[in-house]
């Protein structure tokens, strides 16, 4: 399985979209500051993830979620959660 995931920074509430084969290991890397794009934005919480059968599907989903339409989808999908976190 491969995963597409959304992290939310507890520091500034910004979202980060990523893709991985090992979600727990990758999340630990984010927490430890070993992922360059998110190094200064931790700590994080995982607010959403999807499982895909293969790598290509997971990366295609990541690309979609980073698009305008994907962001709109996430905003609707996570509407209640995002309203609680401000």
UniProtKB/TrEMBL annotation:
Pfam families: GIY-YIG (PF01541). It comes from the Bacteria. Residues 1-75 form the GIY-YIG domain. Coiled coil: none annotated. Belongs to the UPF0213 family. This is Excinuclease ABC subunit C. SUPFAM superfamilies: GIY-YIG endonuclease (SSF82771). PANTHER family: UPF0213 PROTEIN YHBQ.
């Amino acid at each position: 399985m491969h995963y597409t995931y959304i992290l939310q920074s507890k520091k500034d509430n910004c979202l980060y979209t990523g893709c991985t084969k090992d979600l727990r290991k990758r999340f630990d890397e984010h927490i430890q500051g070993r992922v360059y794009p998110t190094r200064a934005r931790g700590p994080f919480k995982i607010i959403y993830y999807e499982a895909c059968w293969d790598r290509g599907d997971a990366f295609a989903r990541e690309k979609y979620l980073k698009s305008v339409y994907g962001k709109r989808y996430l905003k609707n999908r996570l509407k209640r959660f995002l309203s609680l976190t401000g």
